[in-house]
Amino acid sequence: MKRHFPLTIALAIALPSVLSPLWTAHAADDPPADPTLAHDQAKAVSDTVKHDAKTVADAAKDGAKKIAVAAKQVAHEVAVTSKEGAQEVAATAKRGAARAKAAVNGEKTPSPPAKPAGKPPEKPPSPGKAPAP
Questions:
Q1: Mean pLDDT across the stretch 59-77?
Q2: Could you please report the per-residue DSSP string of 2-64?
Q3: Contact assessment for residue 109 and residue 103, using Cβ atoms and an 8 Å cutoff
Q4: How far is Cα 70 from Cα 78, in angstroms, rounded to an integer?
Q5: Which contacts (CB < 8 Å, 24+ apart) does range 40-44 have?
Q6: What is the Cα–Cα distance from 124 to 129, expressed in whole angstroms?
Q7: Region 113-125: what's the mean pLDDT?
Q8: How far is CA 40 from CA 43, 46, 68, 80, in A?
Q9: Using CA atoms, how far apart are residues 27 and 24, in angstroms rounded to an integer?
Q10: In which element (H, E) is residue 80 found?
Q11: What is the DSSP code (8-state) at residue 108?
Q12: In the list 60, 86, 88, 107, which could disulfide-bond 102, CB 3.0-4.6 Å?
């Protein structure tokens, strides 16, 4: 075993010196680090991120506009319905006040006014009968 020890030391010293030119040649194939390339790549990534962020912001803005238009339409419908409901309540209160006044004075209660000319309320069909055509 002692005979192989000097051979191992000789190979350990000689091998790196023999392979050193190969490693040097391989290292020469790698391009040197180019700071402008890194800068260009960073700029491209930054531009892409900015573009994507703008696209998302534009989509959010468009969505917000659509929601605002829909909310405005709903608010208008609610206002119209509320106004109609308030008018019906006022008319009912006026009729109730007139009847109360007539009852206090001992008068006969006036007949209710005719309903406005519109679609008459539909009555549900009887369970045993088919609806009329």
A1: 94
A2: TTHHHHHHHHHHHHHHHHHHHHHHHHHHSPPP-HHHHHHHHHHHHHHHHHHHHHHHHHHHHHH
A3: yes
A4: 12
A5: none
A6: 10
A7: 56
A8: 5, 10, 42, 60
A9: 5
A10: helix 35-104
A11: P
A12: 107
Residue linked to tokens 């390339």: 37
The Cα 132–Cα 47 span in angstroms is 70
CB 110 within 8 A of CB 99: yes
Exposure of 95 by Cβ count < 10 A (0-12 exposed, 13-18 middle, 19+ buried)? middle
Query: 112 near 95, Cβ under 8 Å?
Result: yes
**From 4-8, 55-59, 84-88, 92-96, the region with the lowest mean pLDDT:** 4-8
